[in-house]
Specification:
Largest sheet: 6 strands, antiparallel
Strand content: 15-25%
Radius of gyration: 34 Å
Structural class: alpha+beta
Shape: elongated
Length: about 675
């Protein structure tokens, strides 16, 4: 750069602080505005992270690596666990770690940009300020800051490591190298793409060796090498727990890498690896120009990572790097950009903003470098005409210009165009989020049953938001009810997937109120409906043809059986006197009349559709069972008996009350005639 156009007067620190504060406030606004509703739900991967955060916080489970969902590094999940404890189990707590991390990265890139060019550029303060403005308004970084993905931590720790490494290199002080080692080691606990970070520092070590050869300063060279060794030891010590886990569990190393590896996929498909790599290089280059990430989760599909002003700065910055190739800053930025783009270059579906996130700091500093080159020429043009007496004030306009232009593009593209993209609601599983909100709201009124149950829903989002609540998931075929409710009982039915349960509820429990709970905002399709039974006397008359009680909790209030089609069909209604202490198993035995102490000739062991360990006092459960009969069973009179046991001990629940008891804790239905 031509220093003649650079500001020779240092601007007021209060002026700089005011500009930085304004940049930070804009960055905070873009990362928090409508955060509770945009994105309009939770993506499955966000919910999976949240489920593990729940496990960390509530169950005190502290793995060094989370193997589920293709394997995930732990730092983000631990931070989520802390946020979950502070904010609660909701969609906002899943994203606040990303939001705060994104905000913290803005002042960090200012410090890094200013530090890198402090000794070579009089306007280094504006280098950092412009880079901070570019990052604050970057669509790429704003989007990552609003998603509950661990990738947002990578830019932060890459910049910290480079900042402290640079300060150690320039000063020769071990403390900076030690801090760099900490940041380098911790970076490996952030995101898969962090595995490229050590390559970056190996490249920097090569640069140091090269510079040492040319400078012929052996004493300084030894000090720096000592610092690099110290940094490496610190980083390795921090990485040791994770490294040991990955070494002893090779499947976790390759779980995700094998799925997305460009080289592996190309070879498996019989394609040219070289051509596939060249194609990815082109696509990754185009992400800055005209075709960015096509994944709706990360981007307004195909929107370039840079707007026109930032693109001008980025391209110019690359040219400036080539012209200033002897400067160590140029080597560092070039290595940083190239190495941290490798995770997306070497993977399928390039470009992918998550995998390339480690390069975002290099990109905005290059943008700043290039725009400053142009700004110098603008200022010089005005100076030659005598129109400027205090050029440093004009430098103030550069970060403001970048912030204004980029904020306008980002706001329109994210909060208007992307927010109104068709299918966004489905993509982020908005129906699950809204369903969970309805369930939580209804809990304030009384009991809530979710139909179908969570396994049938296959929704980590519902599981995350309804875990550790009193919402009771039940299967579609399980019509659990409360004969005499003391508070409203609501069945939240996902009618989008289950069209039969609601009519069954209306027939079985007449008098309830049907309400539409969740509709699709684009199509108007009914997704969830509620059926609420309000307290009243004799909501359902429970037939009482048999009396039996097992233990203190399980009561039999109705039992009937009939024989058809070579089987005994049994209808029973159970009620919880109090909450059972375990998931018990029901056994049904058939005996020859008068031989009830012999081995049964037919047997059925079954757990209720709603496990007994979840029964609450007063709940009733009607069930039907089918006991197949042996094909060679002769006509005659037989005895039907049943009881409960606990697996795996097979200890039977005591039959404390029965109108027709049998030995061995069994209740007898009576005699059944089979055949003529």
């Amino acid at each position: 750069m031509n220093n003649s156009a650079m500001p020779q007067q240092t601007p007021s620190k209060w002026l700089i602080l005011a500009v930085l504060l304004f940049i930070l406030l804009v960055g905070v606004f873009l990362r928090t505005y409508q955060l509770a509703s945009l994105p309009p739900g939770l993506f499955m991967d966000e919910a999976m992270n949240g489920l593990d955060a729940q496990d960390v916080w509530r169950n005190h489970h502290f793995p060094v690596f989370f193997s589920a969902n293709n394997g995930r590094e732990p730092l983000y999940i631990y931070l989520q666990a802390v946020m979950l404890a502070l904010v609660g189990d909701n969609e906002l707590s899943m994203r606040l770690v990303s939001t705060y991390t994104g905000i913290l990265t803005i002042p960090l890139v200012y410090v890094l940009g200013r530090t890198l060019f402090r000794k070579t550029t009089p306007a280094a303060i504006w280098m950092g300020t412009t880079a901070a403005a570019a990052l604050a308004a970057s669509y790429w970084h704003v989007s990552l800051s609003r998603l509950g993905f661990r990738t947002i931590l990578l830019p932060l720790f890459v910049m910290l490591a480079l900042l402290w490494f640079w300060q150690g290199w320039q000063s020769g002080k071990l403390r900076w190298f030690g801090l760099a080692g900490i940041a380098l080691g911790v970076s490996q606990y952030t995101y898969l793409a962090a595995r490229a970070v050590p390559i970056l520092f190996i490249g920097m070590l090569g640069l140091i060796l090269l510079v040492g050869v040319f400078q012929h300063n052996l004493k300084r060279h030894k000090i720096v090498m000592k610092g690099v060794f110290f940094m490496s030891v610190v980083a390795l010590l921090i990485y040791l727990p994770l490294g040991y886990h990955l070494l002893t569990t090779p499947s976790d190393v390759a779980a995700r890498t094998n799925d997305v590896s460009l080289l592996g996929q190309a070879a498996a498909n019989g394609e040219s690896v070289g051509l596939a790599l060249v194609n990815n290089v082109v696509l990754t280059g185009r992400m800055f120009v005209d075709r960015g990430d096509t994944n709706l989760r990360h981007n307004l599909p195909s929107r370039a990572a840079l707007d026109w002003l930032n693109l001008l700065g980025f391209i110019t910055g690359l040219v400036v790097l080539l012209r200033q190739w002897r400067k160590p800053q140029s080597w560092l930025l070039a290595l940083w950009l190239a190495v941290m783009l490798l995770p997306t270059l070497l993977a399928t579906a390039a470009p992918q903003y998550l995998r390339a996130s480690g390069a975002v700091g290099a990109v905005v500093i290059l943008v700043s470098l290039g725009l400053m080159w142009w700004w110098e020429r603008v200022i010089r043009w005005f100076e030659l005409r005598g129109w400027l007496k205090r050029p440093f004030r004009v430098w103030l306009l550069l970060p403001i210009l970048v912030l204004t232009v980029s904020t306008a593009y980002t706001f329109v593209d994210y909060f208007i165009r992307w927010a109104n993209t068709p299918d966004l609601y489905n993509y982020f599983e908005g129906v699950e989020l809204e369903g969970a909100k309805v369930a939580r709201h209804k809990l304030d009124e009384g009991t809530v049953y979710l139909i179908p149950d969570l396994p049938a829903q296959r929704s980590p989002v519902l599981q995350l938001l309804l875990n550790f609540t009193d919402v009771r998931p039940v299967s579609s075929s399980c019509l659990i009810f409360q004969p005499y409710p003391l508070e409203p009982v609501t069945y939240l039915v996902r009618t989008q997937r289950d069209a039969e349960t609601l009519p069954q509820l209306q027939a079985f429990l007449p008098g309830g109120l049907v309400e539409t709970a969740v509709t699709h905002p684009e199509t108007g399709e009914v997704l969830f409906q509620t059926y609420t039974i309000y307290p009243q006397e004799n909501v359902i008359a429970m037939p009482e043809t048999a009396v039996a009680q097992f233990g203190k909790a399980i009561q039999l209030t109705y039992l009937d059986a009939h024989v058809t089609d070579g089987a005994i069909h049994i209808t029973a209604t159970w009620q919880a006197g109090q909450q059972p202490t375990a998931d018990h198993t029901l056994f049904i035995h058939l005996y020859h009349e008068g031989q009830e102490n012999a081995e049964p000739i037919a047997q059925l062991d079954v757990q209720p559709c709603y496990p007994t360990g979840k029964w609450q006092p007063g709940e009733a459960l009607p069930e039907t069972y089918t006991l197949p009969l042996p094909a060679d069973l002769s006509p005659g009179t037989y005895t039907l008996a049943f009881g409960w046991y606990t697996w795996p001990s097979f200890a039977r629940l005591p039959l404390v009350e029965s109108d027709n008891p049998l030995p061995n804790q069994r209740h007898q239905l009576g005699q059944i005639t089979i055949g003529d």
